[in-house]
Amino acid sequence: MGVRAAILNRIVAALVPLFLTCGLAAAGDSARLDDLFTRLQTAEPAEAARIESEIWIEWSKSGSPAIDLLLQRGRDALELGDTGQAIAHFTAVIDHDPDFAEGWNGRATAYFQAGEFGPSLADIAHVLTLNPRHFGALAGLGAIFEDSDRPDKALAAYRAALAIHPHLEGIPEAVERLETEAEGQEL
Known about the structure:
- The chain is mainly alpha-helical.
- The protein has a single domain (36-184), classed as Alpha Horseshoe (Serine Threonine Protein Phosphatase 5, Tetratricopeptide repeat).
- It has helices spanning 3-21, 31-42, 45-59, 65-79, 83-96, 101-113, 117-130, 135-147, 151-164, 171-184.
- Helix 2 (31-42) packs antiparallel against helix 3 (45-59) and helix 4 packs parallel to helix 6.
- The protein is globular and about 50 Å long.
- The two termini are 25 Å apart.
């Protein structure tokens, strides 16, 4: 086992209990978000996509125009593939408001895209502590586990994301793929 794999194993071992218990924490969701999540559970796919967009809009409201601007700059840099600049912007968001989950989520995504799984996992832990219903962070966690050749943990993270958002794009297919691979290993 390489040094990177050993370090990743230690990080995963330390963070998995947090991920499994994050659903117990209250994130101070508004009544609007509660309603959106309730509707998401029974929505048809097209309606679920609209509800998901509304949830992302709610999650992206920091309450500060300056932080909202930094968040958008980070997202723009990420879209352009400039992960270094994205990380810098998201870090500024976190420095100004460490309780704003989307700053952590944006940086986790940027770290993931930069191939830095350890820092991404650490930021996902913050996201899920602040917002236990963050299906995007759970999907990202699944992707990290899958890329790290941990299919059982990936499957658990993807299933947790689907429990919150049953129509999350690409995740039902990921669950099906991982379940099929697991069945195929029992020869």
